[in-house]
What does this fold into?
Amino acid sequence: MSVTLEAAPVSPSRTVGVRIWTVATAPAAAVPYDEAYAVLDASERARLAGMRRVGDRMRYLAIHHAFRTLLGRRLGVSAEEVSFRRHCGKCREDGHGKPRPVGPDGTDLSASLSHSGAYALIAVSDTPGVEVGVDIERVRPHMDWSAIPCVEGGRTTHGFEQWTRAEALVKAAGTGLSRTPPRYTGRVFGAWRAATVPHSAQEWYVRSVRCPDGYAASVASASADTRVSTASWRS
Ligand SMILES: [Zn+2]
It folds into this structure.
């Protein structure tokens, strides 16, 4: 018996690609201060000026230099030409909430940034409009979990993994943390688990991300059909 396989109809792939870079922020001196400072905008420079510790300032510079450089490459512009428009996923107003990277011609990106300890993670979606959120936490003992949001409905109520999942979901949705944490719906798509986020009407998807020893990290996406690739950032 012979079986004839028909070619699948050619259609544009709807798979979303999310690239995640791990940025090592120590030694922070890896980025020249002047070069990094030059790409910051006024509000970033104000943030920097408010940091009293030299280590915090150097880390902030290293992270935002990497963030702007990566975003600029994606937008085809220089790092300092990237600007950020804020949009709130909760009240749907502009001017506050999640920062959206925008190029000079108005092209925007879905991106997310998180840092903890000696590392930062930067996630960029290749599909504008498909929001992403990323979170990394350094694993440390003696946490008071009563004050920490974790995704409800999972078998493990607490833990750094669940904490990063909750944060990644809320960052993707752009709603800001509320008293009610995200909740798993029970639906699973490969490595992705579906969840609802308070003040967001749509379903979100979250999974763990490979990260350095001693850290936990998660990424969330608006699409269950999202392929994640990881890389280490070298400036
Ligand atoms: Zn708002």
About this structure: The two ends are 58 Å apart (CA to CA). The chain is about 20% helix and 30% strand.
